[in-house]
Design brief:
mainly alpha
Length: 104
């Protein structure tokens, strides 16, 4: 006779676990937001090739940080505990950074 399996994902336990698991994501997304903001706020002039390269570099850094956050988010523990909205932030930031790098 098999005993019923106890569910380890109790709703009252998820709140604290979500806060703990949100720390590595915040450590990845806060610098990504900052680099995306700086890439958006830099306005190169008609002959500022160095500023254009800086914007492209910052956009690439934002893309790398978003990829790191996305790789953290797709692990089974994060997918089970965190909501799906955590996937929206890296996609949104990466899209904005990519468009900014391409439209200089």
């Amino acid at each position: 006779m098999r005993l019923p399996r106890e569910n380890i994902d109790l709703p009252e336990d998820r709140g604290c676990l979500q806060w703990v698991l949100g720390i590595p994501l915040a450590l990845s997304y806060v610098p990504a937001v900052f680099t995306c903001y700086v890439a958006l706020s830099l306005r190169p002039g008609p002959h500022d090739d160095l500023v254009r390269e800086d914007v492209r570099f910052l956009a690439g850094c934002c893309l790398a940080l978003c990829l790191a956050g996305l790789l953290i988010t797709i692990t089974p523990l994060f997918r089970r505990t965190m909501g799906r909205w955590w996937f929206a932030l890296p996609f949104l930031l990466a899209t904005v950074a990519y468009v900014r790098a391409q439209t200089l």
